[in-house]
Write a sequence for this structure.
């Protein structure tokens, strides 16, 4: 269990599942959740390389930045999705191909 | 014992992530996302990142997940939204993603990673604080500005027009 490749494999599977969600889901909120999976996979990678690179703390700082960016992204994306729902009455992102009604 | 715990946590993480992208009900996806976040937190603990584990729980579970469930509740209320068909082109996507996993796995297993011998698990909080306020001060300020911008943008976007 205590090897770098295990963590990298787990995070690559998590990343791929997030990618699968982004390409197959049509619901805006579900796409947002898949993006969170991708960001978590990136964070696992950062921390794995930090730990197996001699406990290099720079990886932790970058993971902290990723978490902050994810919070900002989730807030703005949800505001956009709620706006889309109010204007188009759908959250199927395939139907929303125009900037205005 | 730690081995078993590690693989159980990996199983929880992967299994619930699979449910997030597969589940028909959006609310079930959100609940599965909770278990994914908790599993990832467990992996952080195995990686000796105690501060990041707490931040993950506080920000992801306490903030982002609550926000997402809030969004689902707000947008799901109208029954005209067709929720059952939430996925499309599943088989093509699955094939592409399995190939992608195979490619990444091949790359990971065949790369001679340089692993440095590391010391004991240390207390990370003070080191992170020192780095944030010395080496990474400019990115830190940039992130705080970004969060302020996101706060203003989210409230502006979601307020009622009148």
């Amino acid at each position: 269990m205590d090897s770098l490749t295990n963590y990298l494999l787990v995070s690559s599977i998590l990343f791929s599942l997030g990618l699968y969600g982004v390409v197959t889901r049509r619901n805006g909120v579900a796409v947002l959740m898949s993006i969170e999976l991708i960001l978590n996979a990136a964070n696992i990678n950062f921390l794995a390389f930090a730990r197996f690179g001699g406990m290099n703390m720079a990886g932790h700082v970058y993971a902290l930045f990723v978490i902050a960016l994810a919070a900002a992204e989730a807030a703005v994306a949800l505001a956009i999705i709620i706006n889309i729902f109010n204007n188009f009455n759908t959250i199927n992102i395939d139907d929303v191909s125009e900037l205005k009604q | 014992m730690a081995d078993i715990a590690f693989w159980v946590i990996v199983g929880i993480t992967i299994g619930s992530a699979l449910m997030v992208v597969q589940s028909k009900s959006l609310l079930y996806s959100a609940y599965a996302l909770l278990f994914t976040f908790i599993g990832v937190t467990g992996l952080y603990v195995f990686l000796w990142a105690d501060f990041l584990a707490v931040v993950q729980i506080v920000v992801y579970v306490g903030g982002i997940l609550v926000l997402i469930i809030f969004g689902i509740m707000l947008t799901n209320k109208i029954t005209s939204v067709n929720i059952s068909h939430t996925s499309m082109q599943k088989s093509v996507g699955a094939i592409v993603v399995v190939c992608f996993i195979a490619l990444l796995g091949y790359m990971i297993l065949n790369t001679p990673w340089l692993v440095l011998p590391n010391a004991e698990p240390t207390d990370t909080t003070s080191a992170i604080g020192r780095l944030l306020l010395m080496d990474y001060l400019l990115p830190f300020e940039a992130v705080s500005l970004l969060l302020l911008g996101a706060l203003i943008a989210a409230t502006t976007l979601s307020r009622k027009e009148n």
